[in-house]
Amino acid sequence: SYNGGTSTVKVNNAGFARWQAYSGISTGDNKTFTWTINSSATNGWAEWLTGGSISLGTGNTVTWTSQRTSGNADGLMWNAGGNINTQNVTAAWSTIADNMYWRAGGDINAKPLGAITWTSTGVGNMRWEAGNNINVRNGTTALAFTQSGTTGSTHWNAGKSIDAEIGGGITFTNSSTNG
Q1: Segment 27-69, tens digit of pLDDT
Q2: Are strands 53-58 and 133-137 parallel, antiparallel or unpaired?
Q3: Beta strands of 81-125 (E only): which ranges?
Q4: What is the C-alpha separation between 14 and 82, in angstroms, rounded?
Q5: What's the whole-model pTM score?
Q6: Is the pLDDT reported for residue 6 higher than 70?
Q7: Percentage of residues of the chain with pLDDT beyond 70
Q8: CA nearest 78: which of 161, 17, 167?
Q9: What is the C-alpha separation between 168 and 146, in angstroms, rounded?
């Protein structure tokens, strides 16, 4: 369980950053996580990986960014064998060339939400994938996934169901030619 202050991680050159735990990753309330793959990273990536669940405390801010301009690799990712649970999270994820995703073997429970803005300005794909369900309870701020690059796609994939209470709205925008 992470209960410290701000977590700032920068990936350069061919390095990578990973939090890995067998049973789960959890955070305290009101934490800030700023993880960045710098443009100098030739083969870098950033990941939270667990066989259990990723569970964020209330009011966390997670800003994950890939500044790499080529590659189209899996760059920014959360992988949980169990669930991904957020409570009033503000998640601003952005990429140019890397793929980014939240992947859970169980459910993605994003409820209630603060604000989610995911953007891809190049060839990176944006994915939420759940073995069971994606459950979203949006507040008053719009949830936005924007693909403005020439290629790339946005997917929400669930093995069972997607249950979205949209509140302030959910917007998927894809301006790519192969979206």
Answers
A1: 999 999 999 998 888 777 899 999 999 999 999 999 999 998 8
A2: unpaired
A3: 84-87, 89-95, 99-104, 108-110, 113-120
A4: 29
A5: 0.93
A6: yes
A7: 96
A8: 17
A9: 16
Q: Are 138 and 115 in contact (CB under 8 A)?
A: no
What average pLDDT does the structure give for the chain? 89
Residue 13 DSSP one-character state: T
**To which H or E segment does residue 12 belong?**
none
C-alpha atoms less than 13 angstroms from C-alpha of 65 in its C-beta half-sphere: 12
Q: What pLDDT score does 142 carry?
A: 76
Distances (CA, A) of 130 to 36, 100, 107, 169: 25, 14, 5, 21
Residues 6+ apart with CB under 8 A from 79: 47, 48, 49, 50, 103
- Distances, alpha carbon 55 to alpha carbons 3, 8, 78, 95, in Å: 12, 19, 11, 23
